[in-house]
Amino acid sequence: MQPSEKALVPFVSVDNMMRLIHHVGVEQMITQIAAQIETDFKRWESFDKTPRIPAHSPHGVIELMPTSDGEAYGFKYVNGHPKNTSEGLQTVTAFGLLADVYTGYPTLLTEMTMLTALRTAATSALVGSYLAPKSATTMAMIGNGAQSEFQCLAFKAMCGINTVRLYDTDPNATEKCAANLQGKGLRVIACKTPEDAIEGAHIITTCTADKKYATILTDNMVGPGVHINAIGGDCPGKTELHRDILLRSDIFVEYPEQTRIEGEIQALEADHPVTEMWEVMTGKAKGRTDDRQITLFDSVGFAIEDFSALRYIKRAIDGTDFFEPLDMLADPDDPRDLFGMLMRAG
Ligand code: NAD
Hints:
By secondary structure, the chain is of the alpha/beta class. It has helices at residues 14-24, 26-41, 113-131, 148-159, 171-181, 194-198, 243-248, 256-262, 277-281, 303-317, 338-345; strands at 9-12, 53-57, 60-68, 72-80, 94-100, 106-111, 138-142, 163-167, 187-190, 203-206, 213-217, 227-230, 239-241, 249-253, 275-276, 294-298, 324-326. The protein has two domains: 5-114 and 304-345, 2-Layer Sandwich (ornithine cyclodeaminase, domain 1), CATH 3.30.1780.10; 123-301, 3-Layer(aba) Sandwich (Rossmann fold). Nicotinamide-adenine-dinucleotide binds at residues 80, 85, 91-92, 116, 120, 142-148, 168-170, 173, 207-210, 214, 216, 231-232, 234, 299-301.
């Protein structure tokens, strides 16, 4: 029996996502997703918002990240398992779904492991374009795992970075990252210590994975005027920066209700002042105000960024063959005759 046309859901597999990314270009796609995120952050108040819903275990975390603008609804399923790489598995994998609020029918199902790397890099560089020093040319990239190349290319495309200084506790990760960035228009310097990596950097990105209160950066390592893009501290009990750095920085966040649970600021008092990025983007709040200010983007990843990425993909695949129609909704001709549909299939 043929499923009805209206019940078929476009599905973007990992393979098709990679084809689409190659078709558009990595930097172009990051830039385009960033534009969609910026548009959606500027209409922040039209979204339903909630901190993501985590299921913690000693092994890692599995999270659901839902939001809606009243017309479309989206969610992402994502895990965070820092121990996975030692078993040959990814720390972060994800898939996501978009639905029509009017009918409740899904309108897109897609892989989101690749897409999360793109949207995270897009968000970081978008925020960087508001907060980083305008003359920034050099970024320290600490943590050279799955997200790292995407981060480097995003800051090149959107913030004018021409040099990246790489550091990872695992030299193999640095070697992999440096090799992947060859020929991508960046000067790449592999460093042996985090101190060496941040030497002369105008932007410091920390993107490490460890389920603990880590101190990737200590206070004496951070000079005036830098922008810190802290990606890896995104779970209760999982942070990257020494508390003293937070106290010297102006802190910018996505959604405070979630960041206070998961971000670097879990180390601070609950009422420590932070600025929401949507307010900076709409001009309600100030971003960087002087050359010596340390700006810190305490990134945890918020559902609206995934919603933006999902809507971008839905548009991008329209009229292409970068998806397969998926028969995932039972949709009988007579809506109340679900049982009849089952019997006819027998
Ligand atoms: P990954 O496991 O592929 O890479 C992490 C790297 O960090 C590894 O190479 C590891 O050797 C290195 N590392 C661990 N401790 C270190 C230390 N003390 N100093 C230097 N390097 C160290 O993980 P990934 O997929 O690249 O993700 C990195 C982090 O970013 C994870 O914690 C993940 O949860 C987080 N993340 C955040 C967002 C967001 O929106 N904020 C999105 C995606 C991933």
